[in-house]
Amino acid sequence: MTDLLQLVFSGMATGSIYALAALGFTLLWQASGTVNFAQGEFVMLPAFAMLAFGNLGLPLPLAFLATCVLAIGVLGWGFKRGIADPLLKFGLMPIVVATIGLAIALRNGVRAGISAQAFPFPSLFADKLFTLGGVTVSLADVGTLAIAVALVLGTQAFLARTVTGRAMQAVAQNTESATVLGIDVPRMVFYTFAINAVLACAAALLVTPTYLAKFDMGESLGTKAFFAAIIGGFNNSRGALLGGVIVGVGENLAAAYISPAYKDAVALVLFMGVILFKPQGLLGKRVERKV
Amino acid sequence: MTPPEAPSAPPPQGGATSGPAKPVPQWHASKPVILAVLTLVLLAVPPFLKNYGIYLFTYWLVFVIATMGLNLTVGYAGQKSLGHAAFFGIGAYTVAILMKAGVSFWLGLPAAMALCFAIGLAIGFPALRVQALYLAFATLGFNTAVWLVLRNEEWLTGGTFGINNIARPSLFGLVLDKPLAFYYFTLGVAILLAWWLWRLLASPWGKAFTALRDNPIRAESLGIDTRAYTLLSFAIGAVYAGVAGALFAPLVEFIEPAPFGVSTSIMMYLMVVVGGAGYFFGPLLGAAVGVLLPEWLRFAQGWYLFVFGVAVVALMLWLPDGLLSIPERLRARRLAKAARAAALAEPVEAQA
Questions:
Q1: Which residue of B has its CA nearest to A227?
Q2: Under an 8 A CB cutoff, do A262 and B148 touch?
Q3: pLDDT band at residue B10, thresholds of 50, 70 and 90?
Q4: How many C-beta atoms surround the C-beta of residue A238 within 10 A?
Q5: Which of A10, B152, B282, B344 has its CA at a distance of 20 to 30 angstroms from the CA of residue B19?
Q6: What structural domains and CATH numbers belong to chain A?
Q7: Do B6 and A234 make contact, defined as CB atoms within 8 angstroms?
Q8: Would you call B334 helix, strand, or coil by DSSP?
Q9: Distance to chain A for B68, nearest Cα, Å
Q10: d(CA A19, CA B79)
């Protein structure tokens, strides 16, 4: 029983990181119809940026802030202007292909330009273990879960409670009406890209101590984030959290009780199950077809 | 009772969501000439090549066969599949395992085709429930699952050690183990399959596939059984990949899980898009780019995949509809120029 609880808990910590990546992905989709297949690489790059700033002698919090600024510029503005804007008018396929190409380029650019090795990454948390009712949990798991959940709920609150957030939602729901109401649509869409970049940096900060900074760390992370987003509901931000946690816990349980060899198939099986019975995801709303 | 639809994206800024409708294959005056030249090259050039050149040509043909199938699924029926390499692998392993068990290639091939058809139908079912984006992920995940089975079930697939010494088949008593002989055999299969696909696309079925792609709702309202055509486009595409896999196994004589992973699927998808999705000859170009580009990019060594990725992004930005859309774009540009010239000429006439 305690084993089970331990697995569930550490699964929730991993899952909350998936949720961060999934949330950015969902926001991009809602606001502009951008599908980012390079989402995992958007987590990998900040990890390397933070290491680089760390080598320059910046302490981790400052390195994180500097990376966020850089990411908003490159992964937010640069990505929007350079790839999303020119391609969105051609529909879904070109943007999917281009972001796949971008992922390949980023992954292998890091591999050839920096190194194919895995680098250790400083953890935010001390190496401490607690025992709660017979269950041993690490401080890193508790901290990761707390920060990730706070970020997801914070993003949600920002979207629901602030004027800017509501304007962003308006743009996501109906671009034309938003324009008529005098909302600065391009700016709101850019904010979405910026938030996605910051969330990716946060995910990098939390995930890299365990995953290690490696050129291909984004590959599985990206895929799992997509599955998490879809399981939870693609048009619902809270769904990202639920989906992420479900995938994280499911993977841990499958690795322990079924076979570690098939751990990576868990997200897929859950996803298949969900879309066959609830195509809009667990928390998603039905959207009727537009003719 | 229509299947529920996945949440659709808001229309992107810019309004227009669909690209120009692509033509169903038609005979142009130039087409027979192009075909004749192409056939001549494919028949006459390889004998003058070294073994590695012949190998590359054969390798390219295998990918042409696979991407023809994917072009049907993606380009003509509009189903975004990113799991094509899974069928490629299923075909290759089916033939390899059966041949190792002493079964003839000529029984292995239909077995591979039948298996791919059945699994393709099964994978088509989620496609009935979900839309473009989800489907891309579902097929991607399916590919991962197949890859995991190939890697983990050692009793069947040899796991990471793979299956080696796969014999080349023989045809009418001729053993096709010389590179050139096997090349001509592959060419024959490719031509046969291309002809069959051509017939299919020119038939009412082909029209139904393109109707499904261009406007699924309208297609349904016209009485096209969209469910059946969606499933069929997957299953037929999968059969092409299965045949390609069945040829790939004896060509490389050693198979392991690596070439049948998600990256190959993405590569095949790129081949289709680069060549021009929904253009009949797209796969010829796309597969050539996909197979030859790595050869040309050898100078880049470690940077090769980086250059490749950048090239893909650049190509999408420049030609979102693929290489074969160039003539159409040129024509459109000429027409626009003519229209502009006419518009400029008009006020002058009015003054006169």
A1: B137
A2: yes
A3: very low
A4: 16
A5: B344
A6: 2-277 (1.10.3470)
A7: yes
A8: helix
A9: 18
A10: 28
- Measure the CA angle with vertex B117, ends B111 and B120; round to 5°: 135
The alpha-carbon gap from A65 to the nearest alpha carbon of chain B, in Å, equals 28
Model pLDDT, residue A244: 93
How far is residue B103 from each of residues B167, B239, B257, measured CA to CA in Å? 11, 20, 22
> What's the average model confidence in pLDDT over B135-146?
85
3-state helix, strand, coil in chain B (%, to 5): 75, 0, 20
Each residue's pLDDT tens digit, A83-118: 999 888 887 778 888 898 899 899 999 999 998 899
Domain ranges of chain B: 48-302
B156 CB neighbours in chain A (<8 A) are none
Residue of B nearest to A268 (CA): B141
Q: Which of A75-79, B144-148, B332-336 has the lowest mean pLDDT?
A: B332-336
- Least confident range of A179-193, B131-145, B181-195: B131-145
Q: Which of A94, A106, A271 sits opposite B320 (nearest CB)?
A: A94
Q: Does B12 touch chain A (CB under 8 A)?
A: yes
Whether A208 and A118 have beta carbons less than 8 Å apart is answered as no
Partner-chain contact B217 A92, CB within 8 Å: no
Q: Where are the beta strands (DSSP E) in chain B?
A: 163-164, 170-171, 174-175, 254-255
Determine, for residues B152 and A88 on separate chains, whether the beta-carbon distance falls below 8 Å: no
Min mean pLDDT across A166-170, A228-232, B193-197, B217-221 is at B217-221
CB atoms B145 and A265 under 8 Å: yes
Note the pLDDT of residue A26: 86
Count A/B contacts: CB-CB distance under 8 Å: 186
Confidence class of residue B113 from pLDDT cuts 50, 70 and 90?
very high
Interface test with A, best of B81, B119, B316 (most A CBs within 10 A): B316
Chain A: nearest CA to B47, how far in angstroms? Answer: 36
The residue type of A45 is L
Q: Within 10 Å of residue B214's Cβ, how many Cβ atoms?
A: 14
List the 209-248 stretch of B: residues with Cβ below 8 A of A.
Answer: 217
Write down the pLDDT at residue B207: 85
pLDDT in tens, B65-75: 999 999 999 88
Residue B134 contacts A, CB cutoff 8 Å = yes
Quote the tokens at residue A65.
């802030």
Q: Which of A98, A268, A276 sits opposite B313 (nearest CB)?
A: A98
Residue A108 identity (one-letter amino acid): N
pLDDT for B352 equals 45
CATH code for the part of the protein at B48-302: 1.10.3470
What's the pLDDT score for residue B348? 54
pLDDT at B86: 95
pLDDT in tens, A277-291: 877 778 877 665 554
How many angstroms separate the CA of residue B66 from the nearest CA in chain A?
18
DSSP single-letter state for residue B278 = T
Q: What percent of chain B has pLDDT over 70?
A: 88
Closest to B226 (Cα-Cα) out of B23, B5, B38: B5
Which two structure tokens, joined as six digits, stand for A48? 């390397």
Find out whether A228 and A247 touch, Cβ atoms under 8 Å.
Answer: yes
> Is B179's pLDDT higher than 70?
yes
Please report, as a single letter, which amino acid is at residue A209.
P
Of the partner residues A113, A227, A269, the one whose CB lies closest to the CB of residue B137: A227
Please report the pLDDT score of residue B26 as a whole number.
Answer: 52
Residues of B in contact with A174 (CB under 8 A): 10
